[in-house]
Design goal:
alpha+beta; 4 domains; 5-stranded antiparallel β-sheet; 19 helices; 54% helix
Amino acid sequence: MLSAIFVDRPRFAIVIAIVTTIAGLLSLAAIPFAQYPDIVPPQVSITTSYPGASGAVVEATVAQPIEAQVIGVDKMIYMKSVSGDDGSYSLLVSFELGTDPDINAVNVNNRVQVALSKLPQDVQRQGVTVKKKSSALLGVVAVSSPKQTYDPLFISNYVTINLLDQIKSTPGVGDAALWGPQDYAMRAWVETDRLTGLNLTTGDVINAIQSQNVQAAVGRIGARPISDDQQLQLNIQTKGRLASVEEFENIVIRTNPDGSVLRLRDIARVELGAANLDRDTSLNGAPAAAIAIYQTPGSNALSTLAAVRTLLGDLEKRFPEDLTWKITYDPTTFVKATIHEVQKTLVEAFVLVVLVVFLFLGSLRATLIPTVAVPVSLIGAFIVLNAIGYSANSVSLLAVVLAIGIVVDDAIVVVENVERVMEEHPDLTPAEATKKAMTEITAPIIAITLVLLSVFVPVAFIPGISGELFRQFAVTVAVAMFLSAINALTLSPALCAMLLRRHHGPRRGPIGWVMRAIDRV
């Protein structure tokens, strides 16, 4: 019999319990903390822009070609697109739970590449971005200029160059993006009356800018085919893309028959400004830029946001004067509050269980056995939770609270039966009484455990989002019950043989009163 081995070798059972507890504590330290389980389907985002186009034009020329190719991609469940009047386009494709986000992104990107040739040239030049999207918003950081020394354009550009890549490289951060990003661009405010008088169109201006603002490979001097006497080859380098307002102002729009030259400055006001004027971000009335930080699935929200705080604190030392940062949205506050309340409930439930067990068992030694066995089962459950990638959240911790009342039953059954055998057979030693008691209850303990597992395990196989929500609950309870049954067959008998003693005479005091009341009932 399994229990007899551990009754004869109690140190073996105690060592196993200690190892299980230590491994559980290490797993608890490593397991990610979250408010709720990750139940959002994997998503892939597609973004691009069509400068100057309305929402209807974007929908007809960009959305339809892309969506016609993306629809039906493997494991897709639905998709949602937004075509904005500012020329922006975004498509969010959601996939079945459990699918690989990287594979999903590759499949979507392959479909987008097929549609790329059907998009307008301006969209192709802008590029189409395809990337997996983390749905877990870890926080929002606002970088602002309280004294309004800098405008949103400067702040957005500074954040893009100096902060975004640093934040993205933080362990646990899946992505970081600016909300309403603004980029520098050269803006030409054309005088339409002047264009009309010169018999020009905006298309002529655009063509002139595009043809003279280009980076091209001009060629080489002395390259083949040449004679063998040629000793040198020289690469020809040109100015390439224009960079300053003055260079753009000197773009030639037209050469007149009299030899005069019409330049861009003659028909337009050129200035360095924002590429898009439809976006604005402020914090308490001050210019700002907002950074949305997304969490990597399976990472620890608390430690990740703490690492971001530390990083921003270090980077702030290099900020220009009158540039500060502030975390304006911090969901970890709710996570901490939720975890704290559940932990408080867990401690209260455990204390109440110990008190009730002490009142009904009437012995401190007997109470010590379930008091030791219950934490081993509960803490050991985190080994499995961490191994299969679950988090410590309000659902799984609620399951631990519920499991207290279930796992304590096994230890109480063992203690009660051993005490009964000791009273009925005074000639038996505690070890012998424990062996005899375990021969009577081993099968019932196993049967009870299997019955309870048959109730909770099927819950883990419920499909869909609701099934994903209850899966951690069911698995946590099932693992705790299984470990409780193992402890009831190993640790509890060993502790009974070591700790239990026969009671000589009736109990007195409050405990005696409670025991006599129970006997009368």
